Amino acid sequence: MSVERIQQHFRESAALKLEALDALAMPLAAAIDTMFGALANGNRIFACGNGAGAAEAQRFAAHLTAGFERERPSLPAIALTADSAVLTALAAGGGFDTVYAKQLRALGHAGDVLFVVASLGDEASLLEVIAEAHEREMFVIALTGGGGKLGEALVETDIQLCVPSQRAARIHEVQVLAIHCLCDGIDAMLLGED
């Protein structure tokens, strides 16, 4: 492995993060306001994604429930990706496409937030859960990469945080930063600026 190749990864990541700054700052601020508003009204945040998106959904829910960088009370966040028994039971009973939507049907209420993490956003399971969230009058915030059908499934009141890239590795790097911004923003609204 050449040092130049490694350095190129760092340069590409840094360049995309700077490009994403302009594309994501305003939508991130709107997402923070929406999430904080839901939490302040006693609602919950549900998170999901597939593959790396599932891991990021769990990271986000863990930061809200267990804390991010400052001590604070736990916040009600549920990763729909985390319970393997529920996921496999639902998949066995109807296929993987509805595993998140069925959980949301059982747990979600009007005013809750669905947070979806996807690199490109063509997965049927994510399109199904967004449709279910709309049916339940929930807010939808989608953290995506460039392209995919997911953006087309969103309605006017939803928020899309679209990383301006087609490359999965770079998209995920920016998504982690965006998740940290969401967690920090919620904490700042709860606890004040640090």
- Oligomerization status of the protein chains: single chain
CATH superfamily: Glucose-6-phosphate isomerase like protein, domain 1
Strand content: 5-15%
Largest sheet strand order: 2-1-3-4-5
| Rg measurement, Å | 17 Å
Tell me the major beta sheet: 5 strands, parallel
Main structural class: alpha/beta
Shape: globular
* Number of DSSP helical runs: 7
The percent range for helix content is 55-70%
CATH architecture: 3-Layer(aba) Sandwich
CATH first level: Alpha Beta
From the 3D structure, determine the CATH topology. Rossmann fold
Description:
The protein is α/β, with parallel strands linked by helices and 194 residues long. It has one domain (3-191): Rossmann fold (3-Layer(aba) Sandwich), CATH 3.40.50.10490. It is 58% helix and 13% strand. The protein has a 5-stranded parallel β-sheet, with helices on both faces. The longest helix has 38 residues, at 3-40. The model has no long low-confidence stretch (mean pLDDT 93).
Summarize the structure.
With 194 residues, this protein is of the alpha/beta class. The chain has helices spanning 3-40, 52-66, 84-94, 99-107, 124-135, 150-153, 168-191; strands at residues 45-49, 77-79, 113-117, 139-145, 159-163.
Structural features:
Rossmann fold, 194 residues, alpha/beta, 5-stranded parallel β-sheet
